[in-house]
Amino acid sequence: MKIWRIGSNWGKQIDLIPIFKKYNISFAGLEVQELMNGVSSGDLICITKGQSIEAVAKVKSITDLERVEISLADDFDFVKALQIEDLFFLNDFSLKSETYGGQGKQFHEVHGKYFNLIYKLFSDLKALFMNSKIESLLTYKKQIILQGPPGTGKTWMAKKIAKELIVPQDLGSPKELINSFFKEFNGSSPDVQAKRLEKERLLTQFQSKFPKEELRNISLESYCIGTGGRDNFCWWIERGLSNIGGYSPGSSRTYLIYFSQKDDEYKTYFRSLKAFEGVNTPQEGIKVVGGFLSDLVSKENLDGIDEFPFGWGYMIKILSSYYPNKFFPANGEKYMTNMLNLFGVNSSGKSPIEKNLLIQGFFQKKKVEFAVDVTSYEFMIWMDTHFDLKGEVEYNNRNLISKGESKLIQFHPAYTYEDFVRGIVVETTDENKTEYKVVNKVLAEFALKALNNKSSNYVLIIDEINRANLPSVLGELIYALEYRFDPENPKETSVESMYSLRDEGELDASEGRILSLPRNLYLIGTMNTADRSVGHIDYAIRRRFAFVDVLPSINPISNALAKEMFEKVSKFFVSNYQEVIYTQASPKRADTLMPDFRPEDVWIGHSYFLTDKKVEQEANDEIKIKMRYEVLPLLKEYVKDGILRSDDTKSNDPVQKLIQELSKL
Q: Which parts of 485-576 fold into alpha helices (H)?
């Protein structure tokens, strides 16, 4: 391989940069025809402008031309054309232009330190381009597997890609984003109107079923959750009205009285609440609960509400269900605090109910300011979609910062669905009793984070993904991997887990089984193709992933001894080593590699040949240790497993000769 330098202002002062950008072809005129005869396929081309390197590329072929009509060429006669590939402009990668060191000839072969400079630049740019392509592929497919032989840096690459994907993004000023929502919202669209009618129907149905004037006399059957019915007060607050503002109690005990199907009886959870002193049975308790419910919804002011026995979230949900124009459909305190922070409203020292009223006041003010037909729920859904209201809101100069997260786990043969998706854990109750509880595990927990922060990316790296029994570990998520969650079509883009987060009989158990994988959750698996002892990835799972080959490369290796060792070892796997290393040609099997194996699957990677030592002697010592205690055992294992062809009875056997050499280091 040779490297050639083409000066941009060459011939009749033609600027080659726009020609390269537009046509992906570089041209040579009469004065360089003889030099062109030395250019071959696979050579590198360096395009300079003055003393600055602007771009690098690889020669694909050379074509004879009588004349090429290029307006930029200003009627310049072209006699030969270089067809190129892998064209990289430094500016496209935000890299500073390298200095070539003098204009000199406009077209000439490069030697010495500039050869190394340009070759390294090309390799680095190709690696950056590869990472960029993988990121684009991941954004499209949502899940990929980086596959290759041992030591090719698959996990390192996965971490690097993840880091790029979760780089914090400046989303701009929250104030401007919110104003844009009110300015652009179309309340007359048929879709908006249809959703409003459905919400009004639900509210009317709920208020008719539980008139506020009759709440004082509510019965156990009409109030309590846990019976499996879908027509009690607590079911409506938690599930029936979920489309008008979510509320998650965490436990049935939040409602103070509930039905336990396990014990087939009503149970109370009054703790040591003063309001329930002397109350011993659910029948007595429901009268107290009914009284507080009645007082809550009939109050004209909210004085003394902090003395009620209910939690703040429960009370706000009840109030917003009876008075949707007075209370905002949000009830989580952190959620509301984050929302007020985005509005620029200080809520320090305010109670949750006061925070809710501040949000409603802000909404009403904006609605009047922009004279827009919009409901508080529609505004909340937009806020929830654009901001991480359940997480930590971060700012930079009062601009909102979107920040994602990455996580790395490793599969192994004992890994199960219960470890990865959802499973049962044992907990101890307040009464020191053992209790079995269904909880989300790594994937479901990470997916929930991504759902709550739709403006950021979340990347889960699964190292050694093929070491687990994938069909068993993934279960029904094989479907969810392909059909990512769509809020406009939730049923068709979600699946049901074999485990429910809700107890049987507590609401509808199936409602607690729902699992969704959002579009901003990315999965990167790594797979060692040399390990044949691990599980097979079947076609159904393969269809859900995009597979990217990660092969050995000499580019990361800087130490001279390491490069020498890498070449010696590599030639046992590939017969066209020079072509593969310097022109990225497809590897061809070496005679020492058994025909059952591809070089791409077993060729020992460059990670075994890397050192971070700066002093040459220290670096050489480390490489010798790696050769003797890492590479040598692997070569012996390859011989034993029939991957490499070797005969230890022959003194001239190349594999055995290298084994002997490495054993003496």
A: 539-542, 560-570
- Are both 133 and 192 inside the same structural domain? no
CA distance 286 to 104: 94
Q: What distances in angstroms separate CA 70 from CA 22, 202, 347, one per listed residue?
A: 10, 68, 65
Is 458:446 a contact under the CB 8 Å cutoff? Answer: yes
Residue 26 belongs to a domain with what CATH number?
3.10.590
Alpha-carbon separation of residue 144 from 413, 456, 530, 532 (angstroms): 21, 19, 19, 20
On the question of pLDDT at 507 being above 60, the answer is no
Averaged over 269-292, what is the pLDDT?
A: 90
- Co-location of 417 and 469 in the same domain: yes
**Domain around 410:** 403-548
DSSP codes joined into one string, 383-429: HHHHS-TTS--EEETTEEEE--EEEEEE--TT--HHHHTEEEEEEE-
Best CA proximity match to 557, nearest among 603, 612, 609: 609
Is pLDDT larger for residue 13 or for residue 626?
A: 626
What is the tally of structural domains in the chain? 4
Count of alpha carbons within 13 angstroms of residue 143, beta-carbon side: 23
Q: Are residues 360 and 415 in the same domain?
A: no
Q: Which residues contact 365 (CB under 8 A, 6 or more apart)?
A: none
The Cα–Cα gap between 603 and 194 comes to 61
621-652 per-position pLDDT tens digit: 999 999 999 999 999 999 999 999 998 888 78
198 and 315 co-located in one domain: yes
Tell me which DSSP letter residue 251 carries: S
The string of pLDDT tens digits covering residues 336-380 is 999 999 998 999 999 999 999 999 999 999 999 999 999 999 999
The domain spanning residue 506 has which CATH number?
3.40.50
Tokens for 248, please give them: 């998650």
Whether 204 and 256 share a structural domain: yes
For residue 188, give the 3-state DSSP assignment.
coil
User: What three-state secondary structure class fits 148?
Assistant: strand
Whether residue 297 is found in the same domain as residue 370: yes
Distance CA 177, CA 492 (A): 31
User: What integer pLDDT is reported at residue 16 of this predicted model?
Assistant: 65
Please give the share of the chain, as a percent, with pLDDT higher than 70: 88
Examine the fold and report which residue of 515, 548, 581 is the final residue of a domain before the chain moves on: 548
Report the share of the chain in percent with pLDDT over 90.
Answer: 46
The whole-angstrom separation of Cα 280 and Cα 285 is 7
CA distance linking residue 276 with residue 481, whole number of Å:
49
Whole-angstrom distance, CA of residue 587 vs CA of residue 606:
15
Which letter does DSSP use for residue 585 in this model?
P
At residue 165, the 3 state secondary structure works out as helix
Residue 349 and residue 422 share a domain: no
Q: What is the DSSP string of 488-528?
A: TSTTTT-EE-SS-SS-TTSS-GGGG-EE---TTEEEEEEEE
Least confident of 21-30, 277-286, 445-454: 21-30
Q: In sequence order, what are the beta bridge partners of 549?
A: 147
Give me the DSSP letters along 219-239: -HHHH-S-SS-S-SHHHIIII
DSSP 8-state symbol, 631? I
156: nearest Cα among 185, 180, 127: 127
pTM (2 d.p.) = 0.71
Beta-bridge partners for 267: 258
Dig out the tokens for 572 from the structure. Answer: 């046992």
Could you give the CA distance from residue 395 to residue 349 in angstroms, rounded to a whole number? 21
**252, two tokens:** 């049935």
Residue 73 has pLDDT above 50, yes or no: no
